[in-house]
Amino acid sequence: MRLSTKLSLVAAALLTLSACNKEAAEPAAPKLDTDAAKQSYALGVSAGKYIKNAVEENKKLDIALDTALILRGVQDASADKAALKDEEVQEILKKLDETYRAKQVEAQAKKAEEAKGKGIAYLAENEKKAGVKKTESGLQYEVITEGTGPKPKAEDKVRVKYKGTFIDGTEFDSTEKNGGEPVEFPLNQVIKGWTEGVQLMPVGSKFKFTVPSDLAYGERDVGPIPANSVLVFEVELLGIVGPDAAPAADEKK
Predict the structure, then answer these.
(1) Helix 35-60 and helix 3-17: axis angle, to 10°?
(2) Of 41, 70, 173, 221, catalytic
(3) Is 63 annotated in the active site?
């Protein structure tokens, strides 16, 4: 987005923020009877959401932004009466950005440490459950359905259905969420917990894996997965893919 366009959006958004003042009268409903009116209002709505999200994100990190002063800044700048010089504005915004990034790193580190502690406790309790087995690496697994087909090797390409959840049961990924079709991948190109675990499965099986963070994504944030997360997967091994790999008789379609 060009800077001039972005500034226009911000200005439009901040003007709408004045309606947030509890003492202000409720504004009349906008008259959207022309394309220009609709386009103008749409720009304001889009920018308003952008500013609202920015203020809320800063608030989460204990950075309080005063919307009244933000609005005043826009009004003063529009009237060429800004109380700060351009150089001062750039320096202040640079420091704000640095503060935000530092607090974000701090918050992520705290979240990762909390996830680590919760993961350790969860693994210890899960290990005690009937039917749960543990490998030398620390991978925990349960056999839901035992297939009768061959077991894949690390260098094989497999076809699976799966569901991935956090330890609180929240689903973060699954084949169902991605259209429901099975997925295929080389077994040696996924997280260590999958590479090891799926090799334990005869084709036609369904296993549940509880994967320690060091066998998953470790200390990295990956998409919706926070650092140090213990992950839980239900995996159906439908087949081993390749010219010489015949599917098992009980392979699911």
Answers:
(1) 80
(2) 173
(3) no
Using CA atoms, how far residue 204 sits from 15, 127, 141, in Å, is 61, 25, 16
Which range, 30-39, 63-72, 107-116, 125-134, has the best average confidence (pLDDT)?
Answer: 125-134
Q: What is the mean pLDDT of residues 128-150?
A: 96
> Over 80: is that where the pLDDT of 142 sits?
yes
Query: Annotated catalytic residue: which of 166, 217, 225, 240?
Result: 217
On whether the CB atoms of residues 183 and 160 are closer than 8 A, the answer is yes
pTM for the predicted model, two decimal places: 0.67
233 part of the active site: yes
User: What 8-state DSSP symbol labels residue 27?
Assistant: P
Residue 211 three-state SS: strand
Residue from 70, 172, 214, 221 carrying the catalytic annotation: 172
- pLDDT tens, residue by residue, 193-233: 999 999 999 999 999 999 999 999 999 889 889 999 999 99
CB atoms < 10 A from the CB of 157, how many?
Answer: 16
217 belongs to the catalytic site: yes
Residue 113: Cβ within 10 Å count:
12
250 is catalytic: no
Token pair in block for residue 137: 């690496």
Domains and CATH numbers, the chain: 3-83 (no CATH), 131-241 (3.10.50.40)
132, 142 contact by CB (below 8 A): yes
**Which member of 141, 162, 207, 209 is catalytic?**
162
